[in-house]
Amino acid sequence: MRLGRASHDTAEPGTAAAPTGGGRRDFKRRAIAIVLVIVALVLLYFAGAAYIPRWWSHRIGSACNGAFSTGMLLGICFGIVFTILPLGLLWFTMRRPMRWKTRIVWLILAVILAAPNLMTLGVAVGTGGGAHAGQRTMDVQAPGFRGATAVGCLIAALIFVVLVIAFRRKGRPPKVPKRPKTPAPEPVDV
């Protein structure tokens, strides 16, 4: 038994243990844990904002090797593949009934699949030093990649919308054409 704290284990049968004030301690621990997680996420964001655009631009630059045609082809392929896969996964996730924990796992997987496009977007529209360095690197080593990725994303979004519309129409029963109304014959005077 600890001194200064009432224990539920040592209370006599039939008597209630005195409140311990543990609720306040649990709240303090949770608050400290939440603050530490938020601080860690902010630090990770700033570290990622400085490092990821540079790293990504060098990877794409190495793949393109300064060739405009390779940059365009890779950009369109990345844009289409890494847009249509996450959109399809999100559509699948939102249409199916599932537990929220399972849904969160699927949503995280969709973000991971979209990561190449998100990193390219970070380079293209970022305002930090890492994004500007990534823009300069892509301008020289991967010309056309950023614009082609945007075009690929638009193509993928259009393909996805067409597929969703086709899928929804496929599930509906076919429409029966209405018969045209024929006017009733007029009575004949005899």
From TrEMBL:
<feature type="transmembrane region" description="Helical">
    <location>
        <begin position="104"/>
        <end position="125"/>
    </location>
</feature>
<protein>
    <recommendedName>
        <fullName>Permease</fullName>
    </recommendedName>
</protein>
<feature type="region of interest" description="Disordered">
    <location>
        <begin position="1"/>
        <end position="22"/>
    </location>
</feature>
<keyword id="KW-1133">Transmembrane helix</keyword>
<keyword id="KW-0812">Transmembrane</keyword>
<feature type="transmembrane region" description="Helical">
    <location>
        <begin position="145"/>
        <end position="167"/>
    </location>
</feature>
<feature type="compositionally biased region" description="Basic and acidic residues">
    <location>
        <begin position="1"/>
        <end position="11"/>
    </location>
</feature>
<feature type="transmembrane region" description="Helical">
    <location>
        <begin position="31"/>
        <end position="52"/>
    </location>
</feature>
<feature type="transmembrane region" description="Helical">
    <location>
        <begin position="72"/>
        <end position="92"/>
    </location>
</feature>
<keyword id="KW-0472">Membrane</keyword>
